[in-house]
Amino acid sequence: MKKVSLADISKELGVSKTLVSFVMNGKAEEMRISEEMTEKVLLKAKEMGYKANYLAKALRTGKSNTIGLIVADISNTFFAKLARSIEDEAIKYGYNVIFGSSDEDSKKSTKLIDVFLDKKVDGLIICPSKGDENYIKKLQKAKIPNVMVDRYFSNIEGNIVVVNNKEGAFQIVEGQIKKRYKRIGCVNFNVGLIQMDYRLEGYKAALVANEIEYDDQLVKNVSFENIEEKAEKAVKELLENDVEVIFFTNNHLAFLGLKLIKEHNRKNKRQVSICSFDSYAFMDLLEVPIVYGVQPISLLGKNAVDLIVKQIDSDTLVNEKRVLPIDILEIK
Fold first, then answer.
1. CATH class of 165-294
2. Which of 194, 253, 306, 330 is the most exposed place for a label (fewest CB within 10 A)?
3. Is the pLDDT of residue 39 over 80?
């Protein structure tokens, strides 16, 4: 099927291609084109199935009204909700969002960035992977608007939107200590991501603040590769080590450990409690006591879009870091 062009529309209406171009680019009022003619052009374009060539528009105007978004894993509910929040907020500013998943792979992440730049996106919102530091620096040197969301690099100044990972983890773990638990295990997603480092620091700080000796045998780090197998092994080792509570540093780890802990609690009089930095919607339906953090995903998305639009609309890039608190909920 032949792609409909501005010339095709002008021919059908018997008007100039320039007039049609002004209408399709939102300049009808500026060029004093009547409302009646504007409506005719728009209706004919819709009727003929006209689709704007955004790449050509970007080359012509310098703007594509498109934002590129890179998350770790769009199938993870956290990132899916974050992407939706960013998309909904971007629409309010007249921007479309295209996105991809890095799978915590720096090579894939940088390839996606290149693809988005080839598509002439106006800016990038990135959940960076380990190893993306140099590429982020290149973006900043080239003055390409970008925002790091959910995680960042401590050696790079930039526009950043995150939650207070250390404080959130501290509050969750200290809440367990206040219940007189002392043997608190931790399963951490350890791929050199700063937010995970801070959550582990929060766990350690809560122990120190309450005069509980840190025991590295009660901390298990698992990587993204073969995560199901490694998380299961980590939980089994902690259960064998007579922990009273297991703190999971993200929702996926909590989900993977939940089944094992439920089976353990059914078979043993000694019950093991669960707490997680992050959450899934179904956690409200669980039949086990659990404490979990709720990240302000909508606010993360809203702030990320606000910062990227400010950069796109500005001649100078001003670095700003926004840190948001988390809520903590308990199911008894």
1. alpha beta
2. 330
3. yes
